[in-house]
Amino acid sequence: MTDYQEILDSIYSELLQQEDKGEIADYIPELAKVDPTKFGIYLNRIHEDNYGVGDAYTKFSIQSISKVFTLAMAFSNQGNKLWNRVDVEPSGNPFNYLALLEQENGIPRNPLINSGAIVVADCLLSTYDNPKAELLKFVRELANDDNIDYNVEVAASEMATGYTNFAIANLLKSFNNLENPVEDVLDFYFHQCSLEMTCEQLSNAFFPFANKGVCMQQNTCLTPTQAKRINAIMLTCGFYDEAGEFAFEVGLPGKSGVGGGIVALLPDNFIITTWSPGLNEKGNSYLGMLALEKFTTASKASIF
Ligand code: DON
């Protein structure tokens, strides 16, 4: 039988020795304050035991991982109508790349790059009177945990310095692909990115994606088809211009954030979250990717 605790312990102790931990994202000033030595892993085996190592119970900024939650909300509200405003193709470009959006007439390549997530945020603003409260409610429900909040300093830090995201949102607006004012959409988008969660909370919140849309408390959050489609988007687009490399090395659908978190999952089997704030040159956690490659190799668990 596979000893998951032993696998996680050995990956953790091996990678703790690693000197190169990547670079912290400092383009968001508040994120530059994070301790680069933090490292945690949490495994939720959906119908079996759970395992945590290192800083698995410390909160961090989930950043782009939040794009999966807003996508799930918008997709379950709007159904396939959503795809008129955002495509589902890998972009092969960095998460904040601007030029492709102009070439493709304001239709973002997919909902996990910034432009696509900003369109998804706009959909939620058009749907709810108080989208920030609705998102918080949704994520707390998925994680089965009320101890999840926005970090308003991180959101304000991005509102003050997020020039590329303002450029993206203005371009979307010029192509009539934003219904709401740019400032309102970005205020929501920066808040969603500022959500703070632990590796344990993230693994739990991703439960429905690994369990055909049914969350931990057995409520149906998504249809099985919606869960399948979101997993497909994570596999092809979850790591931007490193999506191919992640599929090649790790072999799981997943999503990264510049706070250093990565969530990956094997449908009907497990969700695993890693957190190490140092990033590689593509903006994905350096140790997180190494840890996940080692995990799927040691446990022989991947979608391929
Ligand atoms: O919009 C941004 O630039 C950040 N709030 C989120 C970017 C991010 O997490 C990209 N992920 N690897």
TrEMBL record:
<dbReference type="InterPro" id="IPR012338">
    <property type="entry name" value="Beta-lactam/transpept-like"/>
</dbReference>
<dbReference type="GO" id="GO:0004359">
    <property type="term" value="F:glutaminase activity"/>
</dbReference>
<dbReference type="GO" id="GO:0006537">
    <property type="term" value="P:glutamate biosynthetic process"/>
</dbReference>
<dbReference type="InterPro" id="IPR015868">
    <property type="entry name" value="Glutaminase"/>
</dbReference>
<feature type="binding site">
    <location>
        <position position="114"/>
    </location>
    <ligand>
        <name>substrate</name>
    </ligand>
</feature>
<feature type="binding site">
    <location>
        <position position="240"/>
    </location>
    <ligand>
        <name>substrate</name>
    </ligand>
</feature>
<comment type="subunit">
    <text>Homotetramer.</text>
</comment>
<dbReference type="Pfam" id="PF04960">
    <property type="entry name" value="Glutaminase"/>
</dbReference>
<dbReference type="GO" id="GO:0006543">
    <property type="term" value="P:L-glutamine catabolic process"/>
</dbReference>
<keyword id="KW-0007">Acetylation</keyword>
<feature type="binding site">
    <location>
        <position position="165"/>
    </location>
    <ligand>
        <name>substrate</name>
    </ligand>
</feature>
<feature type="binding site">
    <location>
        <position position="258"/>
    </location>
    <ligand>
        <name>substrate</name>
    </ligand>
</feature>
<protein>
    <recommendedName>
        <fullName>Glutaminase</fullName>
        <ecNumber>3.5.1.2</ecNumber>
    </recommendedName>
</protein>
<comment type="similarity">
    <text>Belongs to the glutaminase family.</text>
</comment>
<feature type="binding site">
    <location>
        <position position="158"/>
    </location>
    <ligand>
        <name>substrate</name>
    </ligand>
</feature>
<feature type="binding site">
    <location>
        <position position="189"/>
    </location>
    <ligand>
        <name>substrate</name>
    </ligand>
</feature>
<feature type="binding site">
    <location>
        <position position="64"/>
    </location>
    <ligand>
        <name>substrate</name>
    </ligand>
</feature>
<keyword id="KW-0378">Hydrolase</keyword>
